[in-house]
């Protein structure tokens, strides 16, 4: 816990850290528990969540938790998907979860000017979204270096509506990812096995897209691109990175005094 004097926080942004670290578990062919009839190899690492709270002398944010049953994002097959060339692996037990819900309290609201949250994403996740594999939440923010070496932040997060004039405000918000156009805006297990366009895609191309998706998320896409269309070379790259740590997300709650 960190304490700040009232004077030190006035008219400044107070960052209340809800630090959420999530390793998205995916496999060498693309996802943690996807099973392809033509390539059933899979390796995974479980996600994790860490929560931290900072308080000051006049504003307090407390009882912040990931209140949803699922505590991390998982780009996985649907638990009900038990057939087709891309499917859920019940031995791994990992299934799709694109949403988490966060709850907490802030008080006293008479000193609160603005309360917002953002999902800080790493560059690899932004690249996966740019490539059309996933759609970012509205609250997503990211940073990059411009040509002059300056750090530029894109996105501003989502402002929470606050009600009441005094006492404690209970807040709740949900952060959602969605599947992108590359997968017909649906779970890949459904796209490749039930969608008219997806079913026309060959096994080889299906496998390639799943490999490319994972490579982007984990940051070894340059190596995968260098492997070209050589399946053996691509499989070697995937194998070399199968135990890599997944991307890290930070959910950040920010309060501004009035």
Mean pLDDT over the full residue set: 78
Strand percentage lies at: 25-35%
Low-confidence stretches: 1-57
Number of strands: 13
Judging from the principal axes of the Cα atoms, what is the shape? globular
- The multimeric state of the shown protein is single chain
The SSE order reads HEEEEEEHEEEEEEHHHHHE
Classify the secondary structure makeup into a structural class.
Answer: alpha+beta
**Rg over C-alpha atoms, rounded to the nearest angstrom:** 21 Å
Q: Please give the share of residues in helix.
A: 10-25%
Euclidean distance between termini CA atoms: 23 Å
Number of H- or I-type helical stretches: 7
* Main sheet summary: 6 strands, mixed
List the helices and strands and how they pair.
Blueprint (H helix, E strand, L loop, with lengths): L5 H4 L3 E4 L17 E3 L23 E7 L19 E3 L10 E9 L4 E9 L2 H8 L3 E2 L4 E6 L5 E4 L3 E2 L9 E8 L1 E2 L8 H7 L1 H4 L3 H16 L2 H6 L4 H10 L9 E8 L1
Parallel strand pairs: 6-8
Antiparallel strand pairs: 1-13, 2-4, 3-5, 5-11, 6-10, 6-13, 7-12, 8-9
Entry summary:
Helices cover 21% and strands 26% of the residues.
Structural account:
The structure is a single chain. With 258 residues, this protein is of the alpha+beta class. Helix content is 21%, strand content 26%. It is built from 7 helices and 13 strands. It has helices at 6-9, 123-130, 188-194, 196-199, 203-218, 221-226, 231-240; strands at residues 13-16, 34-36, 60-66, 86-88, 99-107, 112-120, 134-135, 140-145, 151-154, 158-159, 169-176, 178-179, 250-257. Strands 1, 6, 8, 9, 10 and 13 form a 6-stranded mixed beta sheet that branches. A hairpin with a 5-residue loop joins strand 8 and strand 9 (151-154). The two termini are 23 Å apart. Residues 1-57 have low confidence and may be disordered.
């Amino acid at each position: 816990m960190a304490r700040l004097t009232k004077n030190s926080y006035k008219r400044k942004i107070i960052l209340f850290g809800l630090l959420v670290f999530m390793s998205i578990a995916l496999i060498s062919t693309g996802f943690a528990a996807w099973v392809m009839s033509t390539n059933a190899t899979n390796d995974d690492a479980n996600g994790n969540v860490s929560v931290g709270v900072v308080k000051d002398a006049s504003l307090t944010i407390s009882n912040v938790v990931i209140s949803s049953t699922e505590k991390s994002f998982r780009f996985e097959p649907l638990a009900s998907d038990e057939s087709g060339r891309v499917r859920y692996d019940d031995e791994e037990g990992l299934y799709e979860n694109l949403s988490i819900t966060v709850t907490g309290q802030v008080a006293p609201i008479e000193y609160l000017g603005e309360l917002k949250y953002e999902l800080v994403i790493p560059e690899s996740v932004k690249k996966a979204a740019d490539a059309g594999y996933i759609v970012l939440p509205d609250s997503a923010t990211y940073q990059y270096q411009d040509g002059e070496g300056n750090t530029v932040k894109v996105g501003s997060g989502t402002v929470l509506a606050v009600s009441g004039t005094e006492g404690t405000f209970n807040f709740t918000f949900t952060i959602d990812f969605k599947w992108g156009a590359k997968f017909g805006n649906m779970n890949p297990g459904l796209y490749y096995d039930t969608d008219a366009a997806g079913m026309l895609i060959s096994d080889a191309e299906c496998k390639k897209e799943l490999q490319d998706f994972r490579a982007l998320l984990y940051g070894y896409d340059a190596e995968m691109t260098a492997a070209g269309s050589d399946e053996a070379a691509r499989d070697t790259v995937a194998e070399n990175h199968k135990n890599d740590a997944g991307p890290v997300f930070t959910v950040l709650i920010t309060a501004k005094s009035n």
